[in-house]
């Protein structure tokens, strides 16, 4: 038996596997992010119609944690923060109606700060997750313990 007979490739099956993996790794997260964006915008619009300051009251703590996460990663990756607003309490003065922002700059051409742009963008995922874990540990120890048990044995 020759080597060429044992290494036959089913190109159609390979192409299907590649397309499935791309869908799982790229399209599903993008679809999920799009769905969350639609839900977020709809919720903000309804809250603003109900009471304009409700966004600040309901989303204030999350916004502060979100912006502090960006700022912390700016510090880690040696970016200079040029402007920061943890919570914009006057939404009428803001052009984009954002609840907060962190503006930063860095010296281009250096690898570490350039890589930092990616991580600064993702920082709220880590910061908000840590805040949720910390608040759960502080306020709901039984739930926190259940999460730890599930993390150790997810079955």
Tell me briefly what this model is.
The chain has 155 residues and is mainly alpha-helical. Helices cover 70% and strands 7% of the residues. It has a two-stranded antiparallel sheet.
H/E series? HHHEEHH
The percent of residues in helical segments reads 55-70%
From the alpha-carbon coordinates, what is the Rg to the nearest angstrom? Answer: 22 Å
- What topology, given as strand order, has the largest sheet? 1-2
Written description of the protein model:
With 155 residues, the protein is mainly alpha-helical. The protein has 2 domains: 1-50; 52-155, no CATH class. It has 5 helices and 2 strands, in the order αααββαα. The chain has helices at residues 3-6, 11-50, 54-76, 111-139, 141-152; strands at 80-85, 101-105. The chain has a two-stranded antiparallel ribbon with strand order 1-2. It starts with a helix and ends with a helix. The model has no long low-confidence stretch (mean pLDDT 86).
Write the layout of secondary structure elements.
Elements: H1 3-6, H2 11-50, H3 54-76, E1 80-85, E2 101-105, H4 111-139, H5 141-152
Antiparallel strand pairs: 1-2
Question: What would the keywords be for this entry?
Answer:
mainly alpha; single chain; extended; 5 helices; 2 domains; 155 residues
């Amino acid at each position: 038996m020759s080597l060429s007979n044992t290494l036959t490739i089913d190109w159609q099956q390979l192409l299907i596997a590649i397309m499935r993996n791309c869908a799982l790794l790229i399209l599903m997260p993008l679809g999920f992010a799009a769905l969350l964006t639609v839900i977020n915008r709809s919720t903000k619009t309804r809250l603003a119609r109900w009471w304009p300051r409700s966004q600040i009251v309901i989303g204030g703590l999350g916004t502060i944690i979100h912006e502090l996460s960006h700022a912390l990663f700016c510090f880690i990756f040696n970016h200079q923060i040029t402007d920061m607003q943890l919570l914009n309490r006057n939404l009428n003065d803001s052009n984009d109606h954002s609840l907060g922002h962190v503006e930063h700059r860095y010296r281009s051409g250096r690898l570490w700060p350039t890589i930092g742009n990616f991580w600064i963008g993702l920082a709220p995922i880590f910061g908000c997750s840590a805040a949720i874990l910390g608040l759960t540990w502080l306020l709901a120890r039984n739930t926190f313990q259940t999460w730890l048990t599930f993390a150790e044995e997810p079955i």
